[in-house]
TrEMBL record:
The lineage of its organism: Eukaryota, Viridiplantae, Streptophyta, Embryophyta, Tracheophyta. Residues 85-154 form the Translation initiation factor 5A C-terminal domain. It comes from Cucumis sativus (Cucumber). Belongs to the eIF-5A family. This is Eukaryotic translation initiation factor 5A. Translation factor that promotes translation elongation and termination, particularly upon ribosome stalling at specific amino acid sequence contexts. Binds between the exit (E) and peptidyl (P) site of the ribosome and promotes rescue of stalled ribosome: specifically required for efficient translation of polyproline-containing peptides as well as other motifs that stall the ribosome. Acts as ribosome quality control (RQC) cofactor by joining the RQC complex to facilitate peptidyl transfer during CAT tailing step. NCBIfam families: eIF_5A. Transmembrane segments: none annotated.
Length: 160
């Protein structure tokens, strides 16, 4: 053995993995699945019977949770699929900047300024109108696989 010191730098980010494996046959409607590298919510699952020499296959119809696009995939039911780690967090809305970014108050009192306004027109209108009226708004932020997007809104009354 040599007396040299070795320093290893971790290239992975600390914390939870972005996805975890789950057997295709156990994924149900309203669950989550990764299809074509995108986190999706399952809206329909159908399972075909096995052939003479084959596996039963699961046919997934899902909606991308960030873009709203419909995607489909067929996977043997005994194989593993990637399931995204999806979290939903509520933040209080502090400000909306001119360039479409929002300023949110986190639980620990700091601000989160890296999120854009949602692309969904009705949600965007509700947020802008509520903010203009001076209401206290709480936005729900869904995050999965390193992506985040505002997906909901709650009105907690007028500002004091």
């Amino acid at each position: 053995m040599s007396d040299e010191e070795h320093h290893f730098e971790s290239k992975a980010d600390a914390g939870a993995s972005k996805t975890f494996p789950q057997q295709a046959g156990t994924i149900r409607k309203n669950g989550y699945i990764v299809i074509k590298g995108r986190p999706c919510k399952v809206v329909e699952v159908s399972t075909s019977k096995t052939g003479k020499h084959g596996h039963a296959k699961c046919h997934f119809v899902a909606i991308d949770i960030f873009t709203g696009k419909k995607v489909e995939d067929i996977v043997p039911s005994s194989h593993n699929c990637d399931v995204p780690e999806v979290t939903r967090t509520d933040y209080q809305l502090i400000d909306i900047s001119e360039d479409g970014f929002v300023s949110l108050l986190t639980d620990n009192g700091s601000t989160k300024d890296d999120l854009r306004l949602p692309t969904d027109e009705s949600l965007l209108t509700q947020i802008k109108d509520g903010f203009a009226e001076g209401k206290d708004l709480v936005v729900s932020v869904m995050s999965a696989m390193g992506e985040e997007q505002i997906c909901g809104l709650k009105d907690i009354g007028p500002k004091n």
